[in-house]
Design goal:
The chain is α+β, with helices and mostly antiparallel strands. The strands form 9 sheets. It has a 9-stranded antiparallel beta sheet with strand order 3-9-10-11-12-19-16-15-14. The chain has a 4-stranded antiparallel beta sheet with strand order 8-13-18-17, with no helix packed on it.
Length: 784
């Protein structure tokens, strides 16, 4: 993509992806290369599938009890996705990384891809996808997400008004060939007769927009009230604002001779995208009628067939996708889909599952609690589905969904990145590369403020394609004052260097970010002459109900730590740091304990009295592992007691991000029982944040901010760093806190974590005496 620029005619804005050396998604395949490389991958590679037996911790299952409370999962490979459906054959939402919609009156948001996964079936009496799913009409129902293989399987017997058919569906988005996806339908009719099978590519619906780019907070609340959306005002149902953007269809076609179809469009104001499908029908099956339709309203291939009772018939849809900067156009996608069809379902699935098996070589294992082990695996699965190799794509707030508008928050740097860094550092590298690619935008943001700060001021909400600040106008206070994001950005860069010792990377990629953030802090602080210290005034706390406070504890600490990291990085590189960095770092007020010995979140001249806050306190965020916050034992105990007292008031509607960090805070002082309490009821299989049947995480028990990657990343960090007490420092992977182990667990094992070119196993066990011990084993060299 390089210096590719695209323009929104509606908004009149230009969005530029900078840094040609690290594009968001490098062109993996050009026109002719796409076909040749696909053929090479699928004809010359014999995949080796590593069986995992009947390990239930990798299996999530929906049954007919899920019909009334089904929250879809999605299948993804870091580049594009498709939601699941109860039937397995329905058209569902699909998204592609960085495919954003730009509208003059709206915020930027993910553009919905044309739906590509529908296969419909008419048994002579009714269409399958129009049927109402019920226990009486869809018997023997079972939908299984096999996270080890990365495959969704759906099985049931469909009873239409006149007939019955056994239905089996297999779906996956390829981990081994990123442009490809497959949905395969097996039919076994309990009758003989004529049927129809239809394959479609559906354009996404045009959204009913709200003018979110222009609304104040008061106007937004008024609109929500007028729309009779009280849950929206209360933070519950956010669907009315988190609708996907649109793709405007500009081309389409189908070919009955080759059984192919394609569709091409432009995300509004954004990138071009294309999809194509090649259809495989059962061999030697006579086709009575064979029709295609192609229009801007949709593309379809319709087959009329004669089926025999109790015979099995498989129909498979091989789909290829591409976008500007990633692959070619629709003609290349048609070619790739045809190659995939020639390779066959079994080979494609084996290669895909083998790639997943390689990812699962790095694992976190717990003994004695199967629901907890399954939760760990589901969180790892969603993190892996949303990460890529050798790109500069970030982790958006809610992954492949329209939630939180597909924007990038500090979740990318302090919540998702640390988990990937220890388990899949090559994927973690893409997340910090996003901040490097968008450094010019952050520098422009700093200059554009009323005070014209120096350095880089990273956006509170960044567009994953352009890197620009896209915070909605009703949350503009966050954009202006929730500046702790800058510390997270800088410290992620430093942690990547500490974990890899890649000196060239630090010099060329990481240090420019560290330097720019240090310059920002140096210009953002105020000097209090009366108290002879630097302070950070008028900031928004991570506990966002407090939008304008002074000396917020977490913000000051993360600023101090990132200034220190910039100084350390300069020393490693032999570069003289700006003298002001050390001056500010040494003189910055760190309000750990108040003047009277009390603990507080920010300057006590501002009352801490908002009892409805969903975070209650930002103090637990000091336990974020990448922050490497340390203090003496009495201070750690006092901060923990402060946190518990604050969170108890809002526990029932708390944001899980704060609860997870409180769990790590408890682990740091050896309170294993409290760790189990705050990490969630996953230990008993009743975690209110996990939506059935696929462990989809919500932000709170009440709201539908689903697929939140921050809490998936934080949950895994609680085991990687919390129970182990391990931290990444310049001297290595060190034991910063004693290990601890909840009594419900027999052991904790980190398998094949990566650090400085080595693969390491870490085991936490309890001796007969009750003492918890840690063992670390260096095994082999690591190859990313």
């Amino acid at each position: 993509m390089g210096d590719r620029t695209f323009r929104s005619s509606a908004a009149g804005k230009t969005h530029t992806a900078l840094d040609p050396s690290a594009p968001p998604l490098r062109p993996l395949m050009s026109s002719s290369l796409l076909l040749a490389l696909s053929a090479f991958i699928f004809s010359s590679v014999t995949p080796r599938v590593v069986a995992h037996g009947a390990d239930e911790s990798f299996i999530l299952t929906a049954t007919d009890s899920s019909f009334s409370r089904y929250v879809p999962t999605y299948l993804a490979n870091g580049f594009w996705s498709a939601d699941s459906s109860l039937l397995g054959t329905s058209a569902t939402a699909s998204h592609m990384t960085g495919l954003m919609d730009y509208h003059s009156e709206d915020v930027s948001r993910p553009a919905a891809l044309p739906s590509w996964n529908e296969i419909d079936y008419f048994d002579g009496a009714a269409w399958l996808n129009a049927s109402t799913v019920a226990a009486s009409t869809h018997t023997y129902y079972r939908q299984t997400l096999d996270m080890h293989d990365g495959v969704l399987n759906t099985r049931y017997r469909w009873h239409s008004p006149a007939r019955a058919t056994d239905v089996s569906v297999t779906s996956f988005v390829s981990q081994s060939a990123p442009h490809l996806a497959v949905v395969s339908l097996m039919l076994q009719p309990k009758f003989s007769g004529r049927v129809r099978v239809r394959f479609t590519l559906h354009p996404p619906p045009v959204p009913q927009r709200l003018p979110l780019a222009q609304m104040s907070a008061e106007q937004f609340s008024a609109v929500a009230a007028q729309a009779n959306l009280p849950d929206l005002v209360a933070g519950g149902n956010r669907t009315p604002i988190w609708y996907p953007g649109s793709v405007q269809i500009i081309g389409f076609g189908s070919d009955a001779t080759s059984d192919t179809m394609w569709i091409e469009g432009n995300a509004e104001g954004g990138r071009r995208v294309a999809l194509a499908a090649a259809i495989e029908t059962p061999p030697n099956l006579a086709v009575i009628d064979h029709t295609t339709e192609a229009a801007a309203s949709g593309v379809s291939l319709d087959l009329e067939l004669s089926l025999q009772r109790n015979h099995r018939y498989r129909f498979t849809k091989f789909v290829a996708a591409s976008a500007d900067g990633w692959g070619g156009r629709a003609t290349d996608d048609v070619a790739a889909a045809i190659v995939a069809r020639g390779t066959g379902l079994t080979s494609l699935r084996n290669a895909h599952s083998s790639a997943w098996h390689q990812l699962w070589r790095s694992d976190i294992q717990v003994g004695g609690d199967l629901p907890l082990q399954r939760t760990i695996h589901s969180d790892l699965f969603y993190l892996l589905e949303n990460s890529t190799l050798d790109t500069s794509w970030p982790a958006t707030a809610c992954g492949f969904s329209a939630n939180y508008f597909g924007h990038v928050f500090w979740d990318n740097d302090f919540w998702v990145f640390p988990t990937l860094l220890m388990m899949h550092p090559a994927r973690a590298k893409s997340l910090v590369a996003f901040r490097q690619r968008t450094l010019p935008q952050a520098q422009a943001q700093a200059r554009a403020t009323a005070h014209a700060y120096t350095g880089a001021m990273y956006p509170w909400e960044a567009d994953p394609w352009s890197g620009e600040d896209v915070t909605p106008s009703f949350a503009i206070g966050n954009a202006d004052r929730e500046i702790h994001v800058n510390g997270a950005v800088a410290l992620a860069q430093w942690r990547y260097y500490l974990a890899t010792q890649d000196l060239r990377w630090l010099r060329e990629k990481g240090f420019p970010v560290l330097q720019a953030v240090a310059e920002f802090w140096s210009s953002r602080v105020s000097f209090n002459a009366a108290k002879q210290r630097f302070e950070l005034l008028h900031v928004t706390s991570p506990e966002e109900d407090y939008g304008d406070v002074d000396n917020e504890i977490y913000t000051n600490v993360v600023a101090h730590q990132s200034l220190t990291a910039a100084i350390d990085a300069a020393r490693v590189l032999g570069i003289p740091p700006n003298d002001r960095w050390a001056l500010v770092a040494g003189g910055l007020y760190l309000p750990t304990v108040g003047d009277q010995g009390a603990y507080y979140d920010f300057d006590p001249t501002t009352a801490h009295d908002k009892t409805g806050s969903w975070m209650a306190t930002s103090v637990p965020l000091l336990s974020i592992p990448s922050l490497n916050f340390t203090a003496d034992a009495p201070t750690l105990q006092g901060l923990y007691a402060h946190s518990v007292t604050a969170i108890d008031r809002v526990r029932k509607h708390a944001n899980q991000m704060i609860l997870i960090m409180l769990a790590i805070q408890a682990a740091d002082i050896g309170k294993s029982a409290a760790f189990s309490d705050f990490i969630g009821a996953a230990v008993s299989g009743q975690d209110p944040f996990l939506k059935p049947p696929f462990n989809v995480r919500s932000e709170t028990p009440q709201n539908n901010s689903n697929y939140l990657l921050a809490t998936s990343g934080g949950f895994i960090q609680a085991f990687l760093f919390g129970l182990t007490g391990l931290r990444i420092e310049e001297r290595g992977l060190v034991q910063a806190f004693p290990p601890t182990l909840p009594t419900n667990l027999k052991y904790l094992r980190l398998v094949n974590i990566a650090f400085r070119g080595q693969m390491i196993d870490v085991s936490i066990t309890r001796l007969p005496s009750g003492r918890v011990v840690r063992q670390m084993t260096v095994k082999t060299r690591y190859h990313s």
